[in-house]
């Protein structure tokens, strides 16, 4: 079956530090990959996505590259801000079947001033 | 800019009581979903709908029922609540098979 594995958290960083959050996946075929973010007290919102191998998704200074050879979709940001403190979820959907979006367990990021 | 609205946002139930969570979306989306979020478990799909009048089971459907009588509304029902159903419930919607979901703010349910 399909699955998403995220690195264990929580992660605490100082403002302006470099961020990497690891995500690997197991899926048949060519899934689409997503990062969702959940700010405190809110629902999830789409941060970025990539739909095919070598695609790079980017938004709000965050980036992730779809690596089929390593089945990974790691999230990176060069300089985090306090406002980036949130829970980050990696997710995938098989081709043509978005009704079964599979989420990772999520990781909490806290950024200190 | 209502988007996806869930009611109620908080509820405390006793074991065996019933309740309904309402989700409403104003984006004319075909697909709607109910997820539950538990610590260390991520989000798990309970039920979903691909259009008015349709429903389907997700990953953890037991103990829940749903209805989609109107395109804009998706109801999640608990007929006999159990402590294991204590969770935060999220409704989401999407316009098509893109994986791009729009989420509500969540409903925190506690079953004593």
Name a few traits of the molecule.
heterodimer; A: 113 residues; mainly beta; 6-stranded mixed β-sheet; 12 strands; 0% helix; globular; B: 112 residues; 4-stranded antiparallel β-sheet
Descriptive report:
The complex is a heterodimer of chains A (113) and B (112). Chain A has 113 residues and is mainly beta. In chain A, 0% of the residues lie in helices and 50% in strands. Chain A is built from no helices and twelve strands. In chain A, a hairpin with a 5-residue loop joins strand 5 and strand 6. Chain A is globular. With 112 residues, chain B is mainly β. In chain B, 0% of the residues lie in helices and 51% in strands. In chain B, strands 2, 4, 5, 6, 9, 10 and 11 form a seven-stranded mixed sheet that branches. Chain B has a four-stranded antiparallel sheet with strand order 1-3-8-7, with no helix packed on it. In chain B, a hairpin with a 7-residue loop joins strand 9 and strand 10. At the A-B interface, strand 5, strand 6 and strand 10 of A face strand 5, strand 9 and strand 10 of B.
Poorly predicted segments of chain B: none
Largest interface: A-B, 24 and 27 residues
Arithmetic mean of pLDDT of chain B: 94
Low-pLDDT ranges of chain A: none
The tally of helices of chain A reads 0
Please state the structural category of chain A.
Answer: mainly beta
Strand and helix layout:
The complex is a heterodimer of chains A (113) and B (112).
Chain A: E1 3-6, E2 11-14, E3 19-21, E4 23-26, E5 32-38, E6 44-50, E7 56-59, E8 62-65, E9 75-77, E10 86-93, E11 102-103, E12 107-112
Parallel strand pairs in A: 2-12
Antiparallel strand pairs in A: 1-4, 3-9, 5-6, 5-10, 7-8, 8-9, 10-11, 10-12
Chain B: E1 4-7, E2 10-13, E3 19-25, E4 31-38, E5 42-49, E6 56-57, E7 65-67, E8 73-78, E9 87-94, E10 102-103, E11 107-111
In short:
The complex is a heterodimer of chains A (113) and B (112). Helices cover 0% and strands 50% of the residues of chain A. Chain A has no helices and twelve strands.
């Amino acid at each position: 079956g399909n699955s998403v594995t995220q690195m264990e958290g929580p992660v605490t960083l100082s403002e302006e530090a470099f961020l990497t959050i690891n995500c690997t996946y197991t899926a048949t075929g060519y899934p689409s990959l997503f990062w969702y973010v959940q700010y405190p007290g809110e629902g999830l919102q789409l941060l970025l996505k990539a739909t095919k191998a070598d695609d790079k998704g980017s938004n709000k200074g965050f980036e992730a590259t779809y690596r089929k050879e390593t089945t990974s979709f790691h999230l990176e940001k060069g300089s985090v801000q306090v406002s980036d403190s949130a829970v980050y979820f990696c997710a995938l959907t098989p081709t043509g079947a978005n009704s079964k979006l599979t989420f990772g367990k999520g990781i909490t990021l806290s950024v200190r001033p | 800019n209502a988007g996806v609205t869930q009611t109620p946002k908080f509820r405390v139930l006793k074991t065996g009581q019933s309740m309904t969570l309402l989700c409403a979306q104003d984006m004319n989306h075909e697909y709607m979903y109910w997820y539950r979020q538990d610590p260390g478990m991520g989000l798990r799909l309970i039920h979903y709908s691909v259009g008015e009048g349709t429903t389907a089971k997700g990953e953890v459907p037991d103990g829940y029922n749903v209805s989609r009588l109107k395109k804009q509304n998706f109801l999640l029902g608990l007929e006999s609540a159990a402590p294991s159903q204590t969770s935060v419930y999220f409704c989401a919607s999407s316009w098509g098979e893109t994986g791009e979901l729009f989420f509500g703010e969540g409903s925190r349910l506690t079953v004593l």
